[in-house]
Each structure stands twice: as C-alpha cells, then as structure tokens.
From TrEMBL:
GO BP terms: D-serine biosynthetic process
Protein name from the UniProt record: Serine dehydratase
tRNA processing listed as a keyword: no
InterPro entries: TrpB-like_PALP, TrpB-like_PALP_sf
Length: 312
C-alpha cells in the first residue's frame, strides 16, 4: 500500500496533466440539506470527470517500454475518455473497448481524444474478452477503470485537494460504482484528515457495494436498472479491502431522488452534472438528520451528459 509521502509525490507528478478543480457552495442547497455542503467540482476536470486523475497516474507508473506499446481499457464512457486524453497528452496509443450501449456523446469524445474504439456486446464478459484480445495482439498494458492501485491512488487526489482547501470537513461523500473513487478518497482522508469520515452513495437498483460492506465479501448485481450509468460496475479485489477498512458506510438512494438532486444542482448551481454525480447529494438530502450541523464535502464525479436524453 502506498505511503502518505508517496501519495503526495504522485499528486505532484500528475498535477501537470490535470486541473485543480474548484469547490463551490450554494446557500439554497445548504438550506434544503439543512447543513453546510461543499461541492468539489470534478465535472470541470479535463475530459469532464475525476477519472482523468487515475488514468494519468496509471500511465505515468508505466515504464518507457510499456508506454511505447500503448494502453488498453474497457469502459462505458468516462474512463474511456480519460485514458484516451491521458494517452494523447503523453504521446502513446490508447485502445478503448466500449459496449455498444455506451452513450454516443461519450463515444464521440473518445474519438476526439484519439482513442481507437472497439465496440462489443454490453456485458462485462464481452468487454474483458475484447480487451484481452487487444492486449495480446498489441502488447498494450491493460488499465482497469477502478480495480488498479495506481488508478485508485490517482482518484484519491481529488479528496487530497478538497482537504487542503477545507481541512475542517467532517465527512466526504462520493458515488460508488467500481469503487476506485471511493477507495482513493478513503485513503486520502486517512492520510490528510484527523476526524473526517468517508461515506459512499449508490442507487438501490445497483447496491452491490452496500451489500458487500454488509457481508464482508464482494457482491454482485443481477440487474443494472439505474439512470446512474457510471455506477453499474462492481467492486474489485484491489479497492474492496480499502473500502471495507476505511469507509464508514454506504447510503442508498432511489432513482427519483437522484433525478431530484441532479435537477437541483443544474437549476441552482448552474452547472452540468451527470446522474451518477448527483447520487452523493441525493444521499445527503435523504439522510438530513445524519448530517445536520456537519460540514459535508461532496465530490461531483463528472458532467458528461447526453443532452438529448435528460431525465427532466
């Protein structure tokens, strides 16, 4: 496991390739939540999501020989974009496996960033098989979107920045899908805060992380019927031990609560967030009593939205 000193060094190394995103507040949303809420706006990150951090960290960890052969990943959108842009910034090839069901806006963005797309059936098995074939044919290094330690460490730098700007936070809440952001955040909180807690938030429709924390082993979902398309993946053996050890709890929310939270952020803060990014604020609105009087930090994970398919 990485040390605090190594984590700090990693952050400085990726700083050239990422943005230090702003932290925003809304008096009206504070009133609705009945507490102080701070939003770390990773929707303003390069390529529009926090995943630029992890992709950059993972690529920088490769040797020169490995980089020359490129990188490959499978992703429904945001990590695909992140790997494509990170690879372009570092001048290496990026091979991206995307399910045929991925939003067209995200496919278009990958192409813009120089990623070479291979489409497959919308199943984890098909994605993994296609990525493995490319890895074998090209010698490219596979980067997992969330279950890779360097990716996890990179994602955690958002929380490090958060705590540097607002060290008095009582809790940081992130959405959880594959678990990379939540695990990285928990590590950063452990390193840079004394009293802050880390909490995850996810839809009831894909509550595998909640059930995993309850059972102590990785659980899976039988269906993925949620508007939060970025949260349909499962935890992995790299991030789950961190989550199990360092995350206080995971709060589940209903689909309508996600839509309400998303709409509030759009209307009141005048910023674009994707459904997955609204899940953490939905959790605060659902559990107002739990957070009353607390200073709550929320990581807005991304803002890559198909504007032709909004839920409101």
């Amino acid at each position: 496991m990485i040390s605090k000193e190594e984590f700090t060094t990693l952050h400085s190394e990726i700083a050239t390739y990422i943005k230090r995103t702003p932290i925003m507040r809304s008096r009206l949303l504070n009133g609705l939540a009945e507490t102080e809420v701070y939003f770390k706006c990773e929707n303003f990150q390069r390529m529009g999501a926090f995943k630029m951090r992890g992709a950059t960290a993972a690529i920088l960890a490769l040797s020169a020989e490995e980089r020359a052969k490129g990188v490959v990943t499978h992703s429904s959108g945001n990590f695909a974009q992140a790997v494509s842009l990170s690879a372009k910034s570092l001048g290496i090839p990026a091979y991206i496996v995307m399910p045929s069901s991925a939003p067209q806006v995200k496919k278009d963005a990958v192409k813009t960033y120089g990623g070479q797309i291979t489409e497959c059936e919308p199943t984890i098995k098909a994605r993994e098989a296609a990525a493995a074939k490319i890895e074998e044919e090209t010698g490219a290094t596979f980067l997992h979107p969330s279950n890779d330690l360097n990716v996890i460490y990179g994602q955690g730098t958002a929380a490090k920045e958060f705590l540097e700007d607002f060290p008095e936070l009582d809790v940081i809440i992130t959405p959880v899908g594959g678990g990379g952001l939540l695990a990285g955040t928990a590590l950063a909180v452990d390193f840079y805060a004394e009293k802050c807690k880390t909490i995850g938030a996810e839809p009831f429709e894909v509550d595998d992380a909640y059930r995993s924390l309850e059972s102590g082993k990785i659980e899976f979902n039988k269906t993925t019927n949620t508007i939060a398309d970025g949260l349909k993946t499962n935890l992995g053996d790299k991030n789950f031990p961190i989550i199990k050890d360092k995350v206080s709890e995971i709060i589940r929310v209903e689909e309508e609560e996600i839509i309400t939270a998303m709409k509030l952020i759009w209307e009141r803060m005048k910023i674009v967030v994707e459904p997955s990014a609204a899940v953490a604020f939905a959790a605060v609105l659902r559990e107002k009593e739990k957070f009353h009087g607390k200073r709550v930090g929320i990581i807005i994970s991304g803002g890559n939205v198909d504007l032709s398919n909004l839920p409101f």
